Amino acid sequence: MKFKFRHADKIVGLFTLVALLLLVIITVFAGVNNKWFTKKIYFTSLFTSADGLKVGMGVNLRGFQIGRVKNISLNADNRVDLDFYIYVTYHDRILHDSVLVLPSGLLGTSAALELYPGLVEGPPLPDGTFIPSTQTVEGKMLVKTRRVDRPAGGDAITDILTDLPEILDNLNETIVSIGNLTSSLETGIKGEGNDAFSSTVRNIEDISSGLDRSIRDVNDVTASLAALAVELEDPTGLVPTLLDPNGSLDTLLNDDNVLWDHILSILVQLEGAMAGVNSLSASLAGISPQMALTLDETIRSLKEAQKVMEGLQNNPLLKRGISKETVPENPGADMREDEF
Amino acid sequence: MVETFGRHIRQSLGQLSYAAGFQLFLFKETFNFLGKRRIGLRVLILQILFTGVEALSIISLLSLGIGAVIIIQGAQLPDFLLGEQLYRILIIVIARELGPLLTAFVIIARSGSAITTELGNMVVSHEMEAYLSVGIHPVSQLGVPRLIGMSISMFLLTVYSNVFGLLGSLTVSSIITRVRLADHLSALFANFYLVDIVASIAKSFVFGIIIAATSVYYGFSVSGAITEVPVKTIRSIGVSIVLCVIADGIIILLTMLVTA
Amino acid sequence: MIDVPIVLDDVTIRFDGRAALDGLSLEFQRGKSTAVIGSSGSGKSLVLKCAAGLIFPEEGDVLFEGRSIATMGEREYQQMQARTGFHFQDAALWANKSLGENLSLPLLAADPDLSDYALHGKVAESFASVKLELDPSLRPAAISMGQQKMVSFLRATISRPEILFLDDSLSFMDHAGSRQLMARIEEFKDAGATIIIATHNREFSGRLADRVVVLSDGRMVASGPYQEVMSSQDPALLPVLRDLV
After folding, report:
1. A191: phi > 0 → left, psi -120 to 50 → alpha, else beta; which?
2. Residues A183 and A321 in one domain
3. C6-25 mean pLDDT
4. With contact defined as beta carbons under 8 Å apart, do A53 and A86 qualify?
5. Among B152, B155, B190, beta carbon nearest to A34
6. A16 to chain B: closest CA residue
7. Could you say which of A129, B16, B62, B67 has the lowest number of CB atoms within 10 Å?
8. Contact call for B129 and C92, based on CB within 8 A
9. How many domains does chain A have?
């Protein structure tokens, strides 16, 4: 008892200092990790749905975190207002025409938003500016008209991966239009008046232009895939230099050509599908549920192509293999099932 | 019947106003404390020794255990240990809730009861009158160092409790998931927000003040009989727990308002 | 200077409805010593504690130099306490402080800037004045009750109060201790201190008291010079006087 009393000051001092030290360590580490001491520039954006969005999620620029989501709220128009901030260090990248993207591939939503900076030279956007998201028409147009600095990836595979979702979206829209068209055609045929028929014709025109657009995109992809195939065949080409020689390329070449054949078969199928799309669009008389089915095949082929591309990209560099498809089965999915 | 009720109300109000006056004096004297450091500093250091240092072992053991148990039980849920959510759950459950509250309960049981008993016994043995007779107010002499010492001890112990609780859970988690402890820690820090730290500290201080003020009040409310001491001690423990839980709720509401 | 520093004016204190002091009015004159005598439970201690401002009456008023103690501000109350000393019946030493700390606290309360050296000197001097050879680092529980009473007396007197309240000072004391104590009290008396004693010791009151107040059931039944009261043949007074030792 006496011993303790004599050292009370020392013991209490140590007890206090250690606790304060721990608190300071926690605060400093948490602060540095969360950039509490960095000045932030606030921006707003608009999304159609809060799916995949959450408060605190990162805002990335080419995969590098430059800010965070501060708040999400449902506004009076049933749209989602999103407030986010950018650390002041990266403020000079936030130029006019910048766009916010929720990367949503076929593999579920990402853990962070991606910011594509605008390409307009000039001062950075001031605090409080609205930055459109790709869920709005404005944002979509900015991306489509290539007015943003969108990661090109530097190789054919990344290009295809970034372009594919957009193309798939277009194709999906086309299929929906065709579906509507077919049903209105049926009602037209059942004798529901001339108006319906004339609007059907107008729709057909829309669709054909939409199809043209989609097919251009699909042709781009096909060209990219063809280029990739050439590169894969050339051992001194772009792809092998990207890949670790002892890694997946090795696997690719030494697994009895399974993966290789797989890619080739997709390319063949893709070509087949393209031919189908082309022939259908060449003649509007071909508009029928059959066309929708073919387009659906195209989409499925493209999806498979994307998966393989992803596998290629992931396998050598990230060692994750081909990710399992999480998209729910579509009607008619069994058409291809037996071949994979 | 009505008369009894009326008298009861009058007495309760009288007690309440006395208690309010007592607490007001206690807090006023606390602010004056720095002026007369010489008399009270020793008592303050000993109070931190008894309340803080001596409770450290039980608090750290308890926090380590509870931190580990949260992970062991949580591991039975699918994906509990894998997502980012784990860190937020740990921070909210351990740092913001269990850390301060558990520490408060241990301190109520260990030190709050001790304060009421000690002060009550001093009243019985006329030691309080002896303080008055030499010109020292016993509430300033005895109450203030206990209030300050208790608040500081609660704050320091809560820091230890949080550190041990989080370390315990992350250690067990890293054993189960084979994620390195260092990776766990850096992910934990990345999920620490300022409001977590502020809420935890605020709670620890508020709980410390509540426990000390309640224990001191009930200690002084002993009027002379030794048999009153255990009665007042039991009451002080009950009231401390209730007040801490109420304060916890209020602080949770306040932090929700601030972060909303 | 007011001649009558302490006045009890119609003071009543009740415990569980029973009046322990019942409308008591008393005056204590400066420089005089007054003995409050009476059997156990007659309210002697209460009179002293009321007069010293340690407890506050439910009815009536206690005046210190014309000021009501109950309405005094904190500082004024402290200044009053610094000028008085109270020797408790049961010693009432602070159990968790050493004997030395028990003695130095009153000094520090009066002068917080007192150096450790001066404190040690005063404490040692105080022990020596009653020929008490005790280790100042001991706790009260380590010494006998008689010694505790002596240390309690030292605590009451170490800051040389003008007014001294002695609540049954001789209880628990051995013969030698009692003589020591009485000698010290006489010194204070000779120095002009106002002394108020509660006792049932005939020798103690006879030797020290200028005036005697006799209490019975919380009421004053007689008061006057010691010899006069002691020789009274009042039948109401006789049983009280017979109880004195």
Report:
1. left
2. yes
3. 88
4. no
5. B190
6. B156
7. B16
8. yes
9. 2
Q: What is the CA radius of gyration of chain C?
A: 18
My answer on whether A119 and A213 are in the same domain is: no
Residues of chain B neighbouring A5 (CB-CB closer than 8 A)? 46
Calculate how close chain A gets to B190, using CA atoms only, in Å: 5
Q: Would you say residue A1 lies in a domain?
A: no
SS3 for A83?
strand
Interface test with chain A among B153, B192, B197, by most A beta carbons within 10 Å: B192
The pLDDT of residue B121 is 95
At B156 the pLDDT is 95
Task: Pick the last residue of a domain from A97, A123, A144.
Answer: A144
Q: Cα separations (Å) of B12 from A30, B22, B233, B236?
A: 48, 15, 19, 17
Task: Give the model's confidence band at A335: pLDDT under 50 very low, under 70 low, under 90 confident, else very high.
Answer: very low
Q: What is the pLDDT of residue A204?
A: 61
Pick C92's closest partner by Cβ from B127, B135, B137: B127
C88 touches chain B (CB under 8 A): yes
Work out whether strand A58-61 and strand A112-116 pair parallel, antiparallel, or are unpaired: parallel
* B contact chains, 3+ CB pairs < 8 A: A, C
Q: Which of B46, B192, B194 sits opposite A8 (nearest CB)?
A: B46
Tokens representing residue C200 in the block: 């049932």
Tracing tokens 């620490």 back to the chain, one arrives at: B192
Is residue A327 one of the residues assigned to a domain? yes
Beta bridge partners of C11: C24
Taking an 8 Å cut-off on Cβ atoms, the answer to whether C92 and B39 are in contact is no
Tell me the pLDDT tens digit for each residue of A170-212: 666 666 766 666 666 566 555 555 555 556 555 666 666 666 6
Q: Which domains does chain C have, with CATH numbers?
A: 1-83+162-245 (3.40.50.300), 92-160 (no CATH)
Q: What is the pLDDT of residue A327?
A: 46
Q: Are B99 and B201 in contact (CB under 8 A)?
A: no
Query: Do A277 and A132 share a domain, yes or no?
Result: no
Q: How far is B132 from chain C (nearest CA, A)?
A: 7
Residue A9 inside a domain? The answer is no
Residue A287 has pLDDT above 60, yes or no: no
Subunit contact C86:B130, Cβ cutoff 8 A: yes
For the question of whether the overall pTM of this predicted structure is more than 0.95, the answer is no
**Domain residues for A67?**
40-144
The whole domain housing B109 covers: 2-259
Distances (CA, A) of B252 to B153, B165, B239, B245: 22, 20, 20, 11
Highest mean pLDDT among A94-98, B5-9, C144-148, C240-244: C144-148
Q: Which residue has the higher pLDDT, A36 or C79?
A: C79
Do A131 and A231 belong together in one domain? no
pLDDT digits (tens, 9 = 90+) for B59-96: 999 999 999 999 999 888 877 777 778 888 899 999 99
**Would you give the DSSP letter of residue C142?**
G
The answer to whether the Cβ–Cβ distance between A15 and B197 falls below 8 Å is no
Tell whether A58 and A133 lie within a shared domain: yes
Partner-chain contact A12 B190, CB within 8 Å: no
pLDDT at A40 over 90: no
| Residue finishing a domain among A124, A144, A164 | A144
Phi, psi of B83 (to 5 degrees): -80, 170
* A106 and A229 assigned to the same domain: no
Contact residues on chain B for C159, CB-CB shorter than 8 A: 134
Q: Please give the tally of structural domains in chain B.
A: 1
Strand, helix or coil at A255? coil
Partner residue opposite C108 with nearest CB, options B38, B125, B126: B38
Paired strand residues for C26: C8
Average pLDDT over residues B154-174: 94
pLDDT at C2 over 70: no
- pLDDT tens string C112-156: 888 889 889 999 998 888 888 888 889 999 999 999 999 999 999
In a domain, A315, yes or no: yes
Are A185 and A99 members of one domain?
no
